[in-house]
Amino acid sequence: MSTPDRSIQQCVGPDLENIEVMRNHSVLFRAECKRLIQDTDKACKRMQNDDNKQLDQRVRDIQFLKKELELKLEEIILEIDVS
């Protein structure tokens, strides 16, 4: 009976070692994926923040130009009315 037990251990032994190695690789892979997700999230938030700042600046620029055009239009209307 010891012979079948030994052969079972020999068959199961390497499989258990492979399973343990695969499990360790899986743990490392999951940790790497988690790190990449966090890095990507930080990068996306940073880019979104930068884009929001640029859009806010553009809106302020447009508002300024609109005011300038409105003032110029008022000047032109006054010139026309005076003429």
From TrEMBL:
Matches recorded under Pfam families: Tektin (PF03148)
Subcellular location(s) per record: Cytoplasm, Cytoskeleton, Cilium axoneme; Cytoplasm, Cytoskeleton, Flagellum axoneme
GO BP: any one term: cilium assembly
Matches recorded under InterPro entries: Tektin-like, Tektins
Keywords: Cell projection, Cilium, Coiled coil, Cytoplasm, Cytoskeleton, Flagellum
Origin superkingdom: Eukaryota
GO cellular component labels: axoneme; microtubule cytoskeleton; nucleus
Chain segments annotated as coiled-coil in the UniProt record: none
Similarity annotation: Belongs to the tektin family.
Role summary: Microtubule inner protein (MIP) part of the dynein-decorated doublet microtubules (DMTs) in cilia and flagellar axoneme. Forms filamentous polymers in the walls of ciliary and flagellar microtubules.
Subunit structure: Microtubule inner protein component of sperm flagellar doublet microtubules.
Record-given protein name: Tektin
